[in-house]
Amino acid sequence: MANKTAWFIEFTLLGLTENAKNQVILFGFFMIVYVITILGNSLMVITITLSTTLHTPMYFFLRNLSVVDICYTTSTVPKLLSNFLMAKKQISFFGCVAQLYSFISFGGVECVLLAAMAGDRYVAICMPLIYSKVMSWKTCMIMATTCWIIGLVNSLAHTVFTFRLPFCKSKAINHFFCDIPPLLALSCADTSINEIVVYTAGGSVIFGSFLLTIMSYVLIVRTILKIKTASGRFKAFSTCASHLAVVTLYFGTIVFTYIRPTSTYSLDQDRVVPVLYGIIIPMLNPIIYSFRNKDVHGAIKKVILRRHQIATEREPN
What predicted TM-score, i.e. pTM, was given to this entire model? Predict the structure, then answer.
Protein backbone atom coordinates (compact mmCIF):
# COMPACT_ATOMS: atom_id res chain seq x y z
CA MET A 1 0.00 0.00 0.00
CA ALA A 2 0.93 3.63 -0.06
CA ASN A 3 3.15 4.98 2.71
CA LYS A 4 1.81 5.37 6.26
CA THR A 5 0.80 9.02 5.83
CA ALA A 6 -1.80 7.83 3.32
CA TRP A 7 -3.61 5.96 6.10
CA PHE A 8 -4.69 9.27 7.64
CA ILE A 9 -5.76 11.10 4.49
CA GLU A 10 -9.35 11.85 3.56
CA PHE A 11 -10.72 11.87 0.05
CA THR A 12 -13.43 14.19 -1.21
CA LEU A 13 -16.18 12.66 -3.35
CA LEU A 14 -17.26 15.21 -5.97
CA GLY A 15 -20.50 13.32 -6.58
CA LEU A 16 -22.81 13.49 -9.57
CA THR A 17 -23.46 17.24 -9.55
CA GLU A 18 -22.47 20.39 -7.71
CA ASN A 19 -25.81 22.13 -8.35
CA ALA A 20 -27.71 22.40 -5.04
CA LYS A 21 -31.15 22.16 -6.68
CA ASN A 22 -30.15 19.07 -8.66
CA GLN A 23 -28.73 17.48 -5.51
CA VAL A 24 -32.13 17.74 -3.80
CA ILE A 25 -33.85 16.17 -6.82
CA LEU A 26 -31.26 13.40 -7.05
CA PHE A 27 -31.51 12.75 -3.31
CA GLY A 28 -35.24 12.09 -3.68
CA PHE A 29 -34.72 9.93 -6.77
CA PHE A 30 -31.98 7.74 -5.28
CA MET A 31 -33.81 7.45 -1.96
CA ILE A 32 -36.87 6.05 -3.78
CA VAL A 33 -34.71 3.70 -5.87
CA TYR A 34 -32.83 2.48 -2.79
CA VAL A 35 -36.01 1.85 -0.79
CA ILE A 36 -37.56 -0.07 -3.71
CA THR A 37 -34.36 -2.10 -4.11
CA ILE A 38 -34.14 -3.03 -0.43
CA LEU A 39 -37.86 -3.81 -0.10
CA GLY A 40 -38.06 -5.75 -3.39
CA ASN A 41 -34.99 -7.87 -2.79
CA SER A 42 -35.79 -8.40 0.91
CA LEU A 43 -39.27 -9.57 -0.05
CA MET A 44 -37.71 -12.09 -2.44
CA VAL A 45 -35.34 -13.41 0.24
CA ILE A 46 -38.14 -13.77 2.80
CA THR A 47 -40.60 -15.30 0.33
CA ILE A 48 -38.14 -17.87 -1.04
CA THR A 49 -36.97 -18.77 2.46
CA LEU A 50 -40.48 -19.26 3.90
CA SER A 51 -42.16 -20.86 0.88
CA THR A 52 -41.36 -24.56 0.51
CA THR A 53 -42.68 -24.52 -3.09
CA LEU A 54 -39.81 -22.21 -4.03
CA HIS A 55 -37.08 -24.43 -2.58
CA THR A 56 -35.69 -25.25 -6.02
CA PRO A 57 -32.29 -24.52 -7.62
CA MET A 58 -33.65 -21.60 -9.67
CA TYR A 59 -35.00 -19.77 -6.63
CA PHE A 60 -31.93 -20.72 -4.60
CA PHE A 61 -29.85 -18.69 -7.07
CA LEU A 62 -32.45 -15.91 -7.16
CA ARG A 63 -32.25 -15.61 -3.38
CA ASN A 64 -28.47 -15.32 -3.65
CA LEU A 65 -28.92 -12.64 -6.32
CA SER A 66 -31.27 -10.67 -4.05
CA VAL A 67 -28.77 -10.81 -1.18
CA VAL A 68 -25.99 -9.65 -3.50
CA ASP A 69 -28.12 -6.78 -4.84
CA ILE A 70 -28.95 -5.58 -1.33
CA CYS A 71 -25.25 -5.51 -0.42
CA TYR A 72 -24.27 -4.11 -3.84
CA THR A 73 -26.42 -0.98 -3.57
CA THR A 74 -25.74 -0.56 0.15
CA SER A 75 -22.00 -0.30 -0.57
CA THR A 76 -22.53 3.04 -2.36
CA VAL A 77 -26.04 4.53 -2.04
CA PRO A 78 -26.15 5.40 1.71
CA LYS A 79 -22.90 7.38 1.34
CA LEU A 80 -24.22 8.99 -1.84
CA LEU A 81 -27.43 10.05 -0.07
CA SER A 82 -25.58 11.48 2.94
CA ASN A 83 -23.24 13.45 0.66
CA PHE A 84 -26.22 15.11 -1.04
CA LEU A 85 -27.07 16.64 2.36
CA MET A 86 -23.54 17.51 3.54
CA ALA A 87 -21.29 20.43 2.67
CA LYS A 88 -18.13 18.35 3.15
CA LYS A 89 -18.38 15.19 1.05
CA GLN A 90 -15.44 13.38 2.55
CA ILE A 91 -14.57 9.72 3.01
CA SER A 92 -11.67 8.36 5.04
CA PHE A 93 -8.86 6.32 3.52
CA PHE A 94 -10.10 3.10 5.14
CA GLY A 95 -13.69 4.00 4.28
CA CYS A 96 -12.61 4.32 0.66
CA VAL A 97 -10.81 0.95 0.81
CA ALA A 98 -13.91 -0.72 2.28
CA GLN A 99 -16.21 0.87 -0.30
CA LEU A 100 -14.07 -0.13 -3.28
CA TYR A 101 -13.63 -3.68 -2.00
CA SER A 102 -17.34 -4.09 -1.28
CA PHE A 103 -18.51 -2.66 -4.59
CA ILE A 104 -16.11 -4.69 -6.74
CA SER A 105 -16.78 -7.82 -4.66
CA PHE A 106 -20.56 -7.78 -5.04
CA GLY A 107 -20.29 -6.72 -8.67
CA GLY A 108 -18.03 -9.68 -9.38
CA VAL A 109 -20.28 -12.10 -7.47
CA GLU A 110 -23.25 -10.87 -9.50
CA CYS A 111 -21.39 -11.42 -12.79
CA VAL A 112 -20.59 -15.05 -11.98
CA LEU A 113 -23.99 -15.63 -10.39
CA LEU A 114 -25.78 -14.50 -13.57
CA ALA A 115 -23.74 -17.08 -15.48
CA ALA A 116 -24.66 -19.77 -12.94
CA MET A 117 -28.34 -18.84 -13.24
CA ALA A 118 -28.14 -19.04 -17.03
CA GLY A 119 -26.54 -22.47 -16.70
CA ASP A 120 -29.34 -23.60 -14.42
CA ARG A 121 -31.95 -22.46 -16.97
CA TYR A 122 -30.03 -24.25 -19.73
CA VAL A 123 -30.16 -27.56 -17.86
CA ALA A 124 -33.84 -27.04 -16.96
CA ILE A 125 -34.94 -26.29 -20.54
CA CYS A 126 -32.52 -28.34 -22.61
CA MET A 127 -32.09 -31.36 -20.32
CA PRO A 128 -35.31 -31.56 -18.27
CA LEU A 129 -35.18 -35.34 -17.76
CA ILE A 130 -31.90 -35.20 -15.83
CA TYR A 131 -32.37 -31.73 -14.30
CA SER A 132 -32.88 -32.89 -10.72
CA LYS A 133 -29.81 -35.14 -10.95
CA VAL A 134 -27.51 -32.53 -12.50
CA MET A 135 -28.70 -29.59 -10.36
CA SER A 136 -28.57 -31.34 -6.99
CA TRP A 137 -28.39 -29.28 -3.80
CA LYS A 138 -24.71 -30.17 -3.48
CA THR A 139 -24.06 -28.85 -6.99
CA CYS A 140 -26.01 -25.65 -6.25
CA MET A 141 -24.06 -25.03 -3.05
CA ILE A 142 -20.73 -25.58 -4.83
CA MET A 143 -21.76 -23.20 -7.64
CA ALA A 144 -22.96 -20.49 -5.25
CA THR A 145 -19.85 -20.79 -3.06
CA THR A 146 -17.66 -20.56 -6.17
CA CYS A 147 -19.46 -17.38 -7.24
CA TRP A 148 -18.78 -15.73 -3.87
CA ILE A 149 -15.13 -16.86 -3.74
CA ILE A 150 -14.41 -15.57 -7.26
CA GLY A 151 -16.01 -12.22 -6.51
CA LEU A 152 -14.23 -11.74 -3.18
CA VAL A 153 -10.78 -12.83 -4.42
CA ASN A 154 -11.06 -10.78 -7.62
CA SER A 155 -11.93 -7.68 -5.59
CA LEU A 156 -9.07 -8.28 -3.17
CA ALA A 157 -6.58 -8.18 -6.05
CA HIS A 158 -8.00 -4.90 -7.40
CA THR A 159 -8.14 -3.30 -3.94
CA VAL A 160 -4.56 -4.22 -2.99
CA PHE A 161 -3.10 -3.02 -6.28
CA THR A 162 -5.15 0.20 -6.24
CA PHE A 163 -4.29 1.31 -2.72
CA ARG A 164 -0.59 0.49 -2.99
CA LEU A 165 -0.38 3.63 -5.15
CA PRO A 166 0.58 7.05 -3.79
CA PHE A 167 -2.24 9.59 -4.30
CA CYS A 168 -0.35 12.83 -4.77
CA LYS A 169 -2.15 14.62 -7.61
CA SER A 170 -5.27 15.41 -5.65
CA LYS A 171 -7.54 14.05 -2.93
CA ALA A 172 -10.73 14.90 -4.84
CA ILE A 173 -12.33 11.80 -6.42
CA ASN A 174 -14.31 12.77 -9.50
CA HIS A 175 -17.04 10.24 -8.75
CA PHE A 176 -19.84 9.52 -6.28
CA PHE A 177 -17.96 6.58 -4.75
CA CYS A 178 -14.44 5.12 -4.59
CA ASP A 179 -13.93 3.30 -7.88
CA ILE A 180 -10.84 2.11 -9.74
CA PRO A 181 -10.67 4.55 -12.72
CA PRO A 182 -11.01 7.81 -10.71
CA LEU A 183 -8.56 6.57 -8.08
CA LEU A 184 -5.97 5.69 -10.73
CA ALA A 185 -6.39 9.21 -12.10
CA LEU A 186 -5.26 10.62 -8.73
CA SER A 187 -1.99 8.70 -8.64
CA CYS A 188 1.30 10.18 -9.82
CA ALA A 189 2.87 6.70 -10.06
CA ASP A 190 2.90 4.29 -12.97
CA THR A 191 -0.51 2.54 -13.12
CA SER A 192 0.33 0.05 -15.88
CA ILE A 193 0.33 -2.88 -13.43
CA ASN A 194 -3.12 -1.84 -12.24
CA GLU A 195 -4.38 -1.78 -15.81
CA ILE A 196 -2.99 -5.28 -16.38
CA VAL A 197 -4.78 -6.52 -13.25
CA VAL A 198 -8.04 -4.94 -14.44
CA TYR A 199 -7.72 -6.45 -17.93
CA THR A 200 -6.66 -9.93 -16.76
CA ALA A 201 -8.42 -10.58 -13.45
CA GLY A 202 -11.42 -8.32 -13.97
CA GLY A 203 -11.66 -9.11 -17.67
CA SER A 204 -11.63 -12.84 -17.00
CA VAL A 205 -14.52 -12.55 -14.53
CA ILE A 206 -16.57 -10.21 -16.71
CA PHE A 207 -16.00 -11.74 -20.16
CA GLY A 208 -15.95 -15.31 -18.84
CA SER A 209 -19.29 -14.85 -17.10
CA PHE A 210 -20.79 -13.02 -20.07
CA LEU A 211 -19.72 -15.65 -22.59
CA LEU A 212 -21.08 -18.50 -20.46
CA THR A 213 -24.35 -16.59 -20.04
CA ILE A 214 -24.72 -15.88 -23.77
CA MET A 215 -23.80 -19.46 -24.72
CA SER A 216 -26.44 -20.80 -22.33
CA TYR A 217 -29.12 -18.54 -23.78
CA VAL A 218 -28.15 -19.41 -27.37
CA LEU A 219 -28.65 -23.10 -26.57
CA ILE A 220 -31.89 -22.27 -24.76
CA VAL A 221 -33.20 -20.35 -27.79
CA ARG A 222 -32.34 -23.30 -30.06
CA THR A 223 -34.42 -25.54 -27.83
CA ILE A 224 -37.28 -23.04 -27.68
CA LEU A 225 -37.45 -22.91 -31.48
CA LYS A 226 -38.28 -26.61 -31.43
CA ILE A 227 -41.42 -25.99 -29.36
CA LYS A 228 -44.40 -26.80 -31.58
CA THR A 229 -46.96 -24.33 -30.22
CA ALA A 230 -46.62 -20.63 -31.00
CA SER A 231 -47.91 -19.64 -27.56
CA GLY A 232 -45.26 -21.80 -25.90
CA ARG A 233 -42.49 -20.28 -27.99
CA PHE A 234 -43.74 -16.74 -27.31
CA LYS A 235 -43.90 -17.30 -23.55
CA ALA A 236 -40.39 -18.75 -23.45
CA PHE A 237 -38.98 -16.01 -25.70
CA SER A 238 -40.57 -13.21 -23.66
CA THR A 239 -38.93 -14.53 -20.50
CA CYS A 240 -35.52 -14.99 -22.16
CA ALA A 241 -35.71 -11.57 -23.84
CA SER A 242 -36.23 -9.73 -20.54
CA HIS A 243 -33.42 -11.70 -18.88
CA LEU A 244 -31.06 -11.06 -21.80
CA ALA A 245 -31.88 -7.35 -21.81
CA VAL A 246 -30.81 -7.04 -18.15
CA VAL A 247 -27.72 -9.21 -18.66
CA THR A 248 -26.60 -7.27 -21.75
CA LEU A 249 -27.12 -3.90 -20.06
CA TYR A 250 -25.30 -5.06 -16.93
CA PHE A 251 -22.26 -6.56 -18.65
CA GLY A 252 -22.16 -3.86 -21.33
CA THR A 253 -21.93 -0.99 -18.84
CA ILE A 254 -19.31 -2.82 -16.75
CA VAL A 255 -17.15 -3.47 -19.83
CA PHE A 256 -17.52 0.20 -20.81
CA THR A 257 -16.34 1.27 -17.35
CA TYR A 258 -13.40 -1.06 -16.74
CA ILE A 259 -12.24 -2.93 -19.84
CA ARG A 260 -10.85 -0.12 -21.98
CA PRO A 261 -7.66 1.98 -22.10
CA THR A 262 -7.35 4.62 -19.37
CA SER A 263 -6.61 7.19 -22.07
CA THR A 264 -10.26 6.96 -23.19
CA TYR A 265 -11.70 7.65 -19.73
CA SER A 266 -13.84 10.74 -19.37
CA LEU A 267 -14.53 10.84 -15.64
CA ASP A 268 -17.13 13.60 -15.94
CA GLN A 269 -19.22 11.33 -18.19
CA ASP A 270 -18.21 7.88 -16.91
CA ARG A 271 -19.32 8.54 -13.33
CA VAL A 272 -22.94 8.32 -14.51
CA VAL A 273 -22.58 4.82 -16.04
CA PRO A 274 -22.17 2.97 -12.68
CA VAL A 275 -25.60 4.29 -11.70
CA LEU A 276 -27.03 1.82 -14.24
CA TYR A 277 -25.24 -1.37 -13.21
CA GLY A 278 -24.68 -0.52 -9.54
CA ILE A 279 -28.03 1.04 -8.58
CA ILE A 280 -30.75 0.72 -11.24
CA ILE A 281 -30.25 -2.93 -12.27
CA PRO A 282 -30.31 -4.24 -8.65
CA MET A 283 -33.72 -2.56 -8.39
CA LEU A 284 -34.93 -4.18 -11.63
CA ASN A 285 -33.67 -7.71 -10.95
CA PRO A 286 -36.53 -8.77 -8.62
CA ILE A 287 -39.05 -7.42 -11.13
CA ILE A 288 -37.48 -9.06 -14.17
CA TYR A 289 -36.52 -12.39 -12.64
CA SER A 290 -39.20 -12.96 -10.03
CA PHE A 291 -42.22 -10.71 -9.72
CA ARG A 292 -43.49 -11.61 -13.20
CA ASN A 293 -43.59 -15.26 -12.15
CA LYS A 294 -46.97 -16.73 -11.10
CA ASP A 295 -45.29 -19.08 -8.63
CA VAL A 296 -43.71 -16.11 -6.88
CA HIS A 297 -47.01 -14.22 -6.84
CA GLY A 298 -48.70 -17.20 -5.17
CA ALA A 299 -45.88 -17.63 -2.67
CA ILE A 300 -45.93 -13.94 -1.71
CA LYS A 301 -49.71 -14.08 -1.11
CA LYS A 302 -49.31 -17.18 1.06
CA VAL A 303 -46.53 -15.54 3.11
CA ILE A 304 -48.60 -12.37 3.62
CA LEU A 305 -51.71 -14.36 4.56
CA ARG A 306 -49.71 -16.51 6.97
CA ARG A 307 -48.29 -13.45 8.68
CA HIS A 308 -51.77 -11.91 8.86
CA GLN A 309 -53.18 -15.08 10.45
CA ILE A 310 -50.36 -15.18 13.00
CA ALA A 311 -50.92 -11.52 13.88
CA THR A 312 -54.68 -12.11 14.22
CA GLU A 313 -54.18 -15.12 16.49
CA ARG A 314 -51.89 -13.11 18.76
CA GLU A 315 -54.42 -10.31 19.22
CA PRO A 316 -56.20 -10.47 22.60
CA ASN A 317 -59.86 -11.52 22.47
Answer: 0.88
